[in-house]
Input
Amino acid sequence: MANRVKGNKSKSTKKEEHHNQELLESPEALRHTLIDNTELFFKKKKNQRIVLGIGVVIALVVAGIFGYTYYMDNQNQAAQEEMFQAIFYFESDSLSKALNGDGNNYGFLEIIDEYGGTSAANLAHFYAGISFLKQGDYENAVAHLEDFSASDYLLQARAYALIGDAQMGLNQYEEAAQSYQKAADYKPNRYFTPEYLKKAAIAYEANNNYQAAADSYGRIIEEFPTSTEYQEALKHQARLEALASGQ
Output
């Protein structure tokens, strides 16, 4: 009796192994098996509800993404149109109107409030920061410039340097030196980096950090020997090294 059961199990196992081997060797057999299993899955009402629910969720997410993108594109276009007049006032040095508008057209601050999250509002932070800096409102200048971000090497580095200028106005020399250093280290280039390193050196010296100031000039000497800041760096580095050794 026991032997017969054992024999039956052996035949069943061999039959299953043969079926699996057939699936592996025959893509057509595998395709039919997958189709049969899929049809069986969808025939069950519980599974149908699950698939339908997942499909609805995916559709809503996709619709939401497209809807948000369309909305933000429209908002950005409207903000760019509004900003045209504000930039005109900025370039004309009418900074109050550039910031607050003229009663008919938005200024940078209103564009930031009304169109937050758009690339135009991001750029408005940059212009607003410069406008406050020119007016001597250094704290607001820092706040807006810190809210600005860009991926290109020119504007982002310039924003860091302008933050440094505002911090110098607040007598925050150490913070200013760090901001200038960020500007210098952000995608270094021979056109602007020497200027930022010079500003960092000035800020470090104002904070009595003579060695750091000498090191900033040293970078100009080593990395940018053709820059207009080179001769000045040569002149000040030795002086600052002497001051540093006497500390």
The two ends are 101 Å apart (CA to CA). Confidence is low (pLDDT under 50) at residues 1-7, 64-71.
